[in-house]
# Entry
Amino acid sequence: MPSRVGSTGSTPRSSGRPNQLFRNLNSKIASLPMIFVALVIFLGGSIWTIVYSFTNSRLLPRANFVGFDQYERLWASSRWIISIQNLAIYGILSLIFSLVVGFVLAALMDQKIRFENVFRTIFLYPFALSFIVTGLVWQWILNPDFGIQAIVRSMGWETFEFNPIYDADIVIYGILIAGLWQGTGLVMCLMLAGLRGIDEDIWKAARVDGIPMWRTYIFIVIPMMRPVFITTLVIIGAGIVKLYDLVVAQTSGGPGNASEVPAKYVYDYMFQAQNLGQGFAASTMMLLTVAIIIVPWAYLEFGGRKRG
# Structure
């Protein structure tokens, strides 16, 4: 009897292990195209780009390896340095202002104001436009001949100057204004969804304890909205790295190279200058920058959670 019990007791465990392979089989089959795209298109394309960044490919890829020559030429280019500086300025300010303005607007909308749906639609509407349309619209708005500068001067302030489109020192801030105008509404909606997920009892307890509203937001609500902030940061970061069409539509990288960004640098060298090796090197540096930011965050976020 004991031996039979032991043998019968071990049978379900041994037979249950193969069954794990067939659990949620439909979901696993449905995920095969995504896995294929991730491995073949994304990972394979990235590896192919990195390998050919060490070649002197021109119009067509060719396996004529030249070591780090393309990278030395890249970092010796003033145009590339300017593009990195512009992306850093745009990225840092875009992160700060998008989060702050988006959260403030969401907090105001969360006060159950009248015509909330109308205001939410107004703030979110710019996100429905393409970056090309946004760039052209703000090119007109910031044009000194008939834009903000001309309107203010027509009102009597003849010495007023606001010309970010043609001023190389502040042109990146004109692009930043257009980017914030388009993307802040989405951040507001994400933050508003997070605020609506906060339990009403928390607000009641804070009011009973006499905690000011601003302290409730900073020390209680914002820490509880950590997943929302992480999601928002990922979305904003993705938009910053691939910044291209807004610049092309608004300034075309000018005046000169003052508003150059890495994505435009890659496009120009790969498709206009017909220098694939240089474009591949710039693409690899963009990929490396993303990896430096994403990998430590992913390790701290998911690795720490797994250990916990």
